[in-house]
Design a protein that fits this description.
Radius of gyration: 33 Å
Largest sheet: 5 strands, antiparallel
Helix content: 40-55%
Shape: elongated
Distance between the termini: 110 Å
Number of domains: 1
Number of helices: 1
Order of helices and strands: HEEEEE
Length: 164
């Protein structure tokens, strides 16, 4: 009789372990999901941030290149002001058509490209010496800016310089 009781106790224990094992698996899956979901979100956010920083680097390089062109042209430059190839330094905002491609996605569909607006604002500035110890100096204060994407600017970079 004692053997039967031991046997039934063992069977009861086995049954409880099976049920407990199923609960453990379910809890493990839930805990794993709770741990993996934020990690997945962090990877996605990291990828978006890397892409965004890449756009910023490209935009800043394009602005720097434009500033170099304007410095080389000098403060007296004028001329046709139809697109971003212009080096017009007359006071005002330039050019009339400011579209520039930041990033090409590598396919034939240009609607996938990241396009921005490259502009430069020119303001004439004159420094005078009230004491008359030096001659008046006239310079151009230039703010070169690139904002993207076109039509709904969410980001921009700019460089300010003084050109003689």
């Amino acid at each position: 009789m004692k053997a039967r009781r031991r046997r039934s106790r063992r069977l009861g224990t086995v049954r409880n372990q099976r049920g407990l094992t199923m609960i453990e698996i379910m809890v493990s899956v839930v805990v794993l999901a709770i741990v993996i979901a934020p990690m997945f979100d962090a990877f996605v956010r990291g990828r978006v941030m890397v892409a965004h920083r890449g756009e910023e680097r490209v935009a800043l390089r394009l602005v720097e290149r434009k500033v170099e062109q304007l410095l080389q042209a000098g403060g007296a430059a004028s001329g046709v002001d139809t697109d971003i190839t212009s080096t017009n330094m007359v006071a005002g905002t330039h050019p009339t058509s400011s579209a520039i491609t930041l990033i090409t996605r590598g396919d034939l569909d240009t609607s996938n490209d990241v396009i921005g607006d490259l502009t430069w604002d020119v303001t004439s500035v004159t420094w005078t010496d009230a004491a008359g110890t030096w001659d008046d100096a006239t310079y151009k204060h230039v703010v070169t800016k690139l904002a993207w994407p076109r039509g709904a600017h969410r980001d921009s970079v700019w460089v300010t310089t003084i050109i003689n």
